[in-house]
């Protein structure tokens, strides 16, 4: 366990930066607490992100077996979009094109699996939040979120799910960019990420719970 005797506050101010530490009121204990929270959230959010992208892709291929989600063999991406035959919204199409361009530039063979892994969380949450994909979600929602109770209708339930995932995307960005989360309602986001994971897969939820130490971290901080 770290004690004050182990810490050189002047050295830490130099290597972490005074500006960064000021976010934590120059409280090293709070800085460490935030780091432990972030560490715990990292795996939970990783499971959520991997689960969402694979669940969406698998459901799409199940319901649209003859359609392409990524257009692997399209040689003129701009022409396809301008032809107004594009399945994707403008924003998602730009993200997809950027990934394909970067892979081609690196001489990496483009496959569906490679694109799935390279597209960021923003792409997958955009599929949820953008009204452009309403018809798709009416077909795939129950396959992506088999454990989510549909209240009233799929459109309204999907909107509520989309809001949670968009909130989690913003929270995830804070965690992955090493920003403070101790003051961003971590208990609320902890419950959100577990609930959202459970909607997709009970097995993935159990894996997340196996590594989850959130309650112990919170208890230790409150002592």
* Largest β sheet strand count, sense and barrel closure: none
Category from helices, strands and their pairing: mainly alpha
Helices and strands, in order, run as: HHHHHHHHHHHH
Percentage of β-strand residues:
under 5%
How many helices does DSSP assign?
12
* Poorly predicted regions: none
Mean pLDDT: 87
So what's the oligomer here? Answer: single chain
3D shape: globular
**What's the total number of strands?**
0
Distance between the termini: 15 Å
Whole-angstrom Rg: 21 Å
What is the fold's blueprint, element by element?
Layout: H1 9-16, H2 18-22, H3 28-63, H4 77-82, H5 90-105, H6 112-118, H7 121-129, H8 134-144, H9 154-176, H10 186-200, H11 202-211, H12 214-222
Helix pairs in contact: 3-8, 3-9, 3-10, 3-11, 3-12, 7-9, 9-10, 10-11
């Amino acid at each position: 366990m770290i004690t004050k005797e182990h810490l050189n506050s002047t050295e830490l101010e130099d290597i972490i930066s005074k500006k960064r530490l000021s976010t934590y009121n120059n409280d090293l204990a709070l800085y460490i607490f935030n780091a432990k929270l972030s560490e715990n959230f990292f795996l939970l959010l990783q499971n959520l992100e991997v689960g969402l992208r694979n669940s969406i892709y698998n459901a799409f291929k199940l319901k649209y077996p003859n359609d392409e989600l990524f257009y692997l063999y399209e040689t003129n991406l701009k022409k396809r979009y301008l032809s107004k035959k594009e399945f994707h919204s403008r924003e998602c199409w730009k993200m997809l094109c950027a990934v394909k361009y970067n892979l081609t530039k690196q001489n990496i063979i483009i496959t569906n699996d490679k694109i799935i892994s390279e597209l960021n969380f923003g792409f997958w949450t955009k599929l949820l939040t953008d009204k452009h994909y309403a018809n798709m979600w009416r077909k795939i929602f129950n396959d992506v979120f088999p454990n989510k109770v549909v209240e009233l209708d799929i459109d309204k339930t999907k909107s509520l799910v989309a809001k949670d995932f968009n909130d989690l995307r913003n929270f995830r960005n804070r965690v992955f960019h090493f920003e403070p989360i101790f003051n961003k309602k971590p208990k609320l986001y902890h419950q959100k990420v577990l609930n959202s994971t459970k909607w997709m897969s009970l097995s993935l939820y159990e894996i997340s719970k196996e590594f989850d130490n959130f309650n112990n971290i919170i208890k230790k901080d409150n002592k």
